Amino acid sequence: MPxxxxxxxxxxxxxxxxxDEEPDLYAHHHYIFKxxxxxxxxxxxxxxxxxxxxxxxxxxxxxxxxxSVGPLIPSLQRYYNINYLKMSILFIMVFxxxxxxxxxxxxxxDRIGFGLVTPLAALSxxxxxxxxxxxxxxxxxxxxxIFNGFGMGIQDAQVNNLVTxxxxxxxxxxIVQACFSLGGTVSPFISTAFAQHVKAAYRxxxxxxxxxxxxxxxxxxxxxGKTEEQLTALLPKDADVRREKKERKEREKQEAEGKVGExxxxxxxxxxKEEPLGRVHSIVPNEAAPLPPADAEVxxxxxxxGTKMLRIFSTPSVYAxxxxxxxxxxxxxxxxxxxxxxxxxxxxxxxxxxxAVTGFWGGMSVGRxxxxxxxxxxxxxxxxxxxxxxxxxxxxxxxxxxxxxxxGVCYAFVGFFLGPIYPNALMVVSQVLDDxxxxxxxxxxxxxxxxxxxAIPFMTGGIADKHGIWTIQPIAVAMITAFTVxxxxxxxxxxxxxxxxxxxxxxxx
Length: 509
Description:
Elements: H1 9-13, H2 24-27, H3 45-80, H4 84-112, H5 114-133, H6 138-163, H7 169-197, H8 204-223, H9 228-232, H10 236-256, H11 262-269, E1 284-285, E2 296-300, H12 305-313, H13 316-346, H14 355-370, H15 372-378, H16 380-400, H17 404-418, H18 421-432, H19 435-467, H20 472-487, E3 499-500, E4 503-508
Antiparallel strand pairs: 1-3, 2-4
Region (Disordered): 243-271
GO molecular function, one term: transmembrane transporter activity
Transmembrane segments: 87-107, 175-195, 201-223, 318-340, 352-372, 384-405, 411-429, 441-464, 470-490
């Protein structure tokens, strides 16, 4: 049934805010294109479904990338005549690209917006696949994978952040992350077929390039080049009002408990000088920023990209989150990347062992959907500990049993229980961090996760080259234990950084 029009619809259509909105909230941004600074109406239910589908497509591409490399490693080693250690340099290149994405994500988003950054990231991966598909010399092949790490890091950060702002975010997060696993489930079928039947197995990367280009086109169409605020109708005023209400409640609670002295009360009643929403240095330590009068409506001057990063890194708990992401994503990709080589060399499998990677990613995909009601019942925090403990037990089973079929089944269940952990962690992030910071934090988590996806498989390959491929099992056990312990340092309640944006009183009630 079509939505009835309102007097404000014509204003939205011309890029103007409705009468009850503040125009300067939309005018002051760092975006380089004027159209990104326009107010937009909330997306229709149909458009919201299209946006969610495009987010799923992005995650399918990311999973496609991670799931396809493992079955190709033996073929690539033969083609380039290299050992495990030299093959592992591939993951270092991914790390460099991920690091660049983490350092530039906030800046790029503040300049060209979500709707352009994310499709460009998909095209960056297409460049990597184009270079790899030509069978270029190994150094050139490695350099191309920097584009791969960059593109994957940006997409992971942007998509996860947007999902947390959509209706029914917890369910959508599990579905989107299940699509990541779906990509990792499908791609090994194709890459394994190339490894088995095509002499130049690297030609597979042309297939992956086609997937990346299609994904970029879908995202350009779905997002319409809009910013995150334009897509979700979560305009700056919305976040500011919620934040101010929270601070006001805290002040009222302090007053009720008699913890606010005469000086603090006088300071709270003082008139706050009006300031323009200009490009100002907006970092003010909490203790130097008195709360405004209760009868004042307050807005915040938008932070610069540098200020956002400083606020992020002034929050101690952020370090626990990014180190956790480093280990979790690292062990996930390490298992996926090396399990084919493990089954071939330690369990006597053939090249068809690449299909075990499909079982691993398929388990992740199913687990992220099937375990949704379990997670909702026991909570995000406890579910992370429970699923990690079960995955740890299964890894120990693989280590100490020597059945090819049994190991393959256990790998599928490792994926089943590891899968829901990451989306659950992202929902915790959305609950404990300020709205304007979580996008940057998820970006850093994505880039450090990409770094872990590079460093831990590289370390695993180096150890395997010296001591044997069997060592991937004790490494996986150690990494799962480590990220479970680190999660204990992630807060359970909402936290804020040491710094707050500069306030401006615009109206007294």
